[in-house]
Structure formats: structure tokens, C-alpha cells
Design a protein that fits this description.
The protein has 509 residues and is α+β, with helices and mostly antiparallel strands. Helices cover 28% and strands 24% of the residues. The strands form 4 sheets. It has an 8-stranded antiparallel beta sheet. A 6-stranded mixed beta sheet has the order 5-6-11-8-9-10.
């Protein structure tokens, strides 16, 4: 093993995720650090890559399965495997501007819009570093919050936050992927961006291959360890946000077609940048609608991120409410109503807010007792899917949940769950109770029984099976497995980067 100041090792512990709903006994946790955390260098990147490759080789020699994770944000158990090793990369948070000579002459993206980000950098740091007055760039999209690390966000596919942009992995131009014996810089052949000399600075070999890139975008931790990614940014912009309470019937065209005429939005002559509708399935009468319009950002604008702390008081409130509902199921309507009133009220004192993306999608503190599951459906099927899910809710009416609709364009990732053109992601969000879990299961069953095309968010609660994954992804399953064999030609290494879950859903063929 490497020196303890670079890799912290804990043996035989219980691995717990960010939301406290997954607990897995593991043989070893390895927290990896850069040699000099405050001084980002390419030589340091090569040294850290070698360190990660050494861990992979040690895991192969020990005959154990290995998973990499960042901020442990997933509601699912994808980042951990029982009795295996977990490599925690949250301390690997270097970022780099790109030199003009490192960009390929054929690149359609200028160096000003390119930003190299190490795997453990969380989205909040990326926003703050991009959105400075001097750099004046921004991400086009993110998740609903920014506590995830970049490798985790793209590895399971967050749903995105802009209706005309794909999920976050669609903004990735290149990926550094490590195995025991390979250090690869992978780009799509259709969109070259960096030079072979740039890849060499990372100690990597340049690979331009559409299939390998598309497979690596949403890798589920099964292709190796993602060490860094090249992000495409855009010019800094502001989002004008407002919350409205709109009758559900008035939102039909917006929900099913993203046609905002007659929708009751603040400016029906403009297409919003972000559109989200939250519904209480016990009533389905009002759509608690968040809309954001994009505006240019003045050069002198100063950001005030004011990110929340993970130790913020009150983070156990959902768990306490969940415990009360388990004892008194009749409290469901009261608890849900209180949450809606506190979180989704119209701010009459501040009806419009202008903020950078990094200020808008702020850090979400850990929420013990929260449940979340995401179903992506084709846009034309949104209200049909909502009705199917509402009927499932009527079977489990004590579930303290809301339905949330959010939109993204089709992702280029081979196994991205936002695979429709475009996709609406309907989340079941709420308090983690037995009724909530039963509802999530029944909703999937009812959608299947109705013949509804859908996929589920890999990083949230789900009931994925081999049949359901095959039904949702079709031939992409075979193509992904074929590429996986090319990237991991050794069967023992493929098994090391697998897990019982991946085996069960047919992603270790």
C-alpha cells in the first residue's frame, strides 16, 4: 500500500451513504489524497493516477471487488459492494484551465470554454471557480443541487436542470479512465478536442472512439476509475427564478409538449431555461411550478453563494416526521401539506430572483429519512405516466411524497437514463416510510403493466431487474457490454469492477 498521508485506510467498517439509507459492510475503505492538495500540477495528476492504479492492482491481487465513490450522494448502493473495497475520491478536487496548444485544431470548442476537473471535485466548487469575475464562465446544467462530485454525477447520470440541454454528462468533452494497466484519455471521434500531447501530460494515451466515449459517460463505476473529465462551459449567465401555483389542467401543454402558451407562466412569449412542476398526488389540482429564464450576466456581477452546511440544524426533521407517520399513518396529509407550505410557497416579498447557476443550485444538506426515485418517460407520455403513478399512490395513500417533473434533452451516454428525445423525469420525492418504498415499487410495476416506456435513475431508489433494464435500454445493453470487454479485456478485472447489482441487471456479461 501507498504512504498513509496519501491513502487513508479503514478496514472492516460499515459504509454509509450521504442520505443514510444505504449501509454496507466493506472490507476496506481507501480515502485517496493528492500529494499537495493546494497545488494542482500535471505531475501531481500523474502521481495520483499511478496511486489509483496501484489500488486497483492490489484489489485484483486480493481477489476483491472494488468501487469508487465521491460524496456518497446516491440513494442506491451502486457506490459500494459488500465485503469489497471502496475508493473514496472526494479529496481529489484539482481543476485546471486549458492552454491553447493543448486544444486540437479540429476542436469546435475554444479553450476558454474548456475546464479540466479532477474526479472528486464537487459541483459547488466547479461553479465557484468558473463563475468568478475574471473567468466569467458557467455550467449549462447540473442536478437540482450541487453536492455531488463530478465523477459521481456523470457516473450515474443526474437529470439535468435545463430543458434544452442534456444531463450533465452531455457537457463532458473527454474522460480520463484508469484500469490496473491502462491510463486512457477518451474522446468521441465525432468531436475531437484535445491533443495527444495533452493526454501525455496526464500520463494517458489518447483514444478517439465514439462507442468507448459514449459507454464511459455513464459508466456506473464498472469500466474503471474515472480520474478526471474535461467539461464544456459557456459564458456566465443569470437565472431569473419565480415560483407559481398554477392549476394542473392549465399545465397540460407545457407538461406534454413544452408548449408554454396559455400555461400561466410569467412570460409566455419566451421559452424558459428551466421548468419544473411539483404535484401532491393526493389532490393533483395545483402544479407548484418553478420557472427560470436565462439572462446575460453583467461583467461586474459579484456572486454570493452562501452554501448550506452539511451540519445544518434540522437535517433530521424528515426522519422525525417519517417516524411519526409510521406510528400515525393519518398524519400523511398534514405532514405533506406542511412540507409543501414551507418549501413551495410563493415569495411575495421577492417574486423574482436573479442569480448565477452556482447560486441557484446551492448545496443541499444531508437529509436522513428522505426517499427519492426517478422515472424518465418520453415527453408526450407525461400526463399519462402521472395518472398511472397517481393510481399507484391511491393504493399507498399514507406515503408522504410529491411527484416532481423536470426535463432534459436526450443524453449521449449509452446507459444514461435520460434517453428520450427529450425526457421528462418524474421523481417520487418524500419521506422514507414503508408506504413510500411500496409506492416506488408499485409505480414501476404499473408503468410496466401499461406498456409505458421508461427508465429509472441509477443513483436513486429503484427496483431494477435484468428484464427492466433490457426493456428500457434494448440493444444499448449489448453494445455497452461489448465496449466494456474492449476497455477491460481481462475477465478478472471486469469482475473486480462489477457488483451483485450489476450482475443481476445484466451489465457484467
Amino acid at each position: 500500500m501507498m504512504p498513509p498521508n496519501q491513502i487513508q485506510v479503514n478496514n472492516n467498517i460499515e459504509w454509509v451513504n450521504h442520505h443514510f439509507n444505504i449501509k454496507v459492510p466493506i472490507a476496506k475503505r481507501l480515502r485517496v489524497h493528492n500529494e499537495n492538495p493546494t497545488r494542482a500540477t500535471m505531475s501531481g495528476m500523474r502521481a495520483t493516477a499511478a496511486r489509483l492504479q496501484g489500488i486497483i492492482a492490489d484489489a485484483l491481487a486480493a481477489g476483491v471487488q472494488i468501487r469508487a465513490c465521491g460524496s456518497r450522494w446516491s440513494f442506491s448502493d451502486i457506490p459500494a459492494v459488500k465485503d469489497g473495497w471502496v475508493v473514496e475520491t472526494a479529496n481529489l478536487d484539482w481543476t485546471f484551465n486549458v492552454g491553447a496548444s493543448d486544444v486540437d485544431l479540429a476542436s469546435a470548442t475554444s479553450r476558454d470554454d474548456l475546464y479540466l476537473v479532477q474526479c472528486g471535485t464537487n459541483i459547488s466548487k466547479i461553479n465557484e471557480r468558473l463563475e468568478t469575475k475574471t473567468r466569467r464562465r458557467a455550467l449549462r446544467t447540473s442536478g437540482a443541487s450541487n453536492g455531488q462530485t463530478i465523477a459521481g454525477a456523470i457516473g450515474t447520470g443526474v437529470h439535468g436542470s435545463a430543458i434544452d440541454v442534456g444531463a450533465m454528462e452531455s457537457e463532458v468533452a473527454g474522460i480520463q479512465l484508469l484500469t490496473a494497466t491502462q491510463n486512457l484519455w477518451i474522446e468521441p471521434a465525432r468531436a475531437p478536442v484535445m491533443t495527444a500531447n495533452f493526454a501525455a501530460k496526464l500520463g494517458a494515451t489518447l483514444v478517439r472512439d465514439d462507442a468507448k466515449f459514449d459507454a464511459a459517460l455513464v459508466s456506473l463505476g464498472a469500466l474503471g476509475i474515472v480520474h478526471s473529465v474535461m467539461l464544456r462551459g459557456t459564458g456566465r449567465y443569470l437565472l431569473n427564478s419565480s415560483m407559481l401555483h398554477i392549476p394542473f389542467g392549465q399545465l397540460q401543454g407545457a407538461l406534454n409538449m413544452l408548449d408554454f402558451r396559455g400555461s400561466g407562466l410569467p412570460d409566455q412569449t419566451r421559452r424558459p431555461y428551466f421548468f419544473q412542476v411539483i404535484l401532491d398526488p393526493s389532490k393533483m389540482d395545483i402544479g407548484y411550478t418553478t420557472v427560470r429564464y436565462k439572462e446575460l450576466c453583467p461583467p461586474g456581477y459579484g456572486a454570493d453563494y452562501n452554501l448550506k452546511s452539511e451540519a445544518e440544524p434540522g437535517t433530521d426533521l424528515p426522519r422525525l416526521i417519517a417516524s411519526a407517520i409510521k406510528m400515525f399513518p393519518d398524519l400523511r396529509d398534514t405532514a405533506t401539506s406542511l412540507l409543501i407550505q414551507s418549501e413551495l410557497k410563493v415569495r411575495s416579498d421577492r417574486p423574482h430572483e436573479w442569480r448565477l447557476p452556482g447560486e441557484t443550485y446551492s448545496f443541499t444538506s444531508a437529509r436522513e429519512g428522505i426517499a427519492s426515485s426517478g422515472f424518465a418517460v418520453p415527453i408526450a407520455q407525461v400526463t399519462t405516466a402521472l395518472e398511472i403513478m397517481r393510481q399507484a399512490f391511491l393504493v399507498h395513500k399514507s406515503a408522504p411524497v410529491v411527484f416532481t417533473c423536470r426535463y432534459a434533452q436526450k443524453s449521449p451516454g449509452m446507459m444514461a437514463f435520460t434517453r428520450y428525445d427529450p425526457s421528462c423525469v418524474i421523481d417520487i420525492d418524500g419521506i422514507d416510510t414503508p408506504a413510500t418504498r411500496k409506492l416506488i415499487t408499485l409505480a414501476g410495476q404499473r408503468l410496466e403493466a401499461a406498456g409505458m416506456p421508461f427508465t429509472q435513475h441509477w443513483g436513486k431508489m429503484h427496483d431494477l431487474t435484468k428484464a427492466r433494464v433490457r426493456r428500457g435500454y434494448g440493444g444499448s445493453v449489448d453494445r455497452w457490454n461489448q465496449v466494456r470487454k474492449l476497455l477491460l479485456p481481462d475477465a478478472a478485472e471486469r469482475d473486480a469492477f462489477s457488483s451483485p447489482f450489476l450482475d443481476d441487471v445484466g451489465l457484467n456479461a
